[in-house]
Amino acid sequence: QVQLVEFGGGLVQTGGSLRLSCAASGRTFNINLIGWYRQAPGKQRELVAAISRGGTTNYADSVKGRFVISRDNALNTMYLQMNSLKPEDTAVYYCAAVTLDYSRIYYIPKSETEYSYWGQGTQVTVSS
């Protein structure tokens, strides 16, 4: 059993910052925290940012230059620093993990269907 728990959501004004954390626990052998996704009301879930165990990253165009994804492999924790927040960033944010052989340190899933584990989500609301 693997559990992912997100922390750090909340209400912030436009231009403000929040830092989300995601911690994995349980049977985490070969479990890699990689992706942050979000889902706004009435919209499909979308990738925000992803980071491989080796540290390579990719970002949605809408957050490039404002958000920074990072991870601590020793702690099995992943972070999303969100700066210059906009009302359109309002959504429920989810972290996601995938089972990967540890040798695939630079792999990032190409689709959310590859992720096996999801957190319960944390609400981020940006007021205008």
Describe the model.
The chain has no helices and eleven strands. The protein is mainly beta and 128 residues long. The protein is globular.
List keywords for this structure.
four-stranded antiparallel sheet, single chain, mainly beta, 128 residues, globular, seven-stranded mixed sheet, 0% helix, 52% strand, 11 strands
Question: Secondary structure elements and their pairing?
Answer:
Layout: E1 2-7, E2 10-13, E3 18-26, E4 31-39, E5 46-51, E6 57-59, E7 67-72, E8 77-82, E9 91-99, E10 117-118, E11 122-127
Parallel strand pairs: 2-11
Antiparallel strand pairs: 1-3, 3-8, 4-5, 4-9, 5-6, 7-8, 9-10, 9-11
Mean pLDDT: 95
Number of helices: 0
List low-confidence stretches: none
How much of the sequence lies in strands comes to: over 45%
SS elements, strand count: 11
The gyration radius over C-alpha positions equals 14 Å
Order of helices and strands: EEEEEEEEEEE
- Could you tell me how far the N terminus lies from the C terminus, measured between alpha carbons in angstroms? 40 Å
The main sheet comes to: 7 strands, mixed
- Class by helix and strand content? mainly beta
Helix content: under 10%
Entry summary:
With 128 residues, the chain is mainly β. It has strands at 2-7, 10-13, 18-26, 31-39, 46-51, 57-59, 67-72, 77-82, 91-99, 117-118, 122-127.
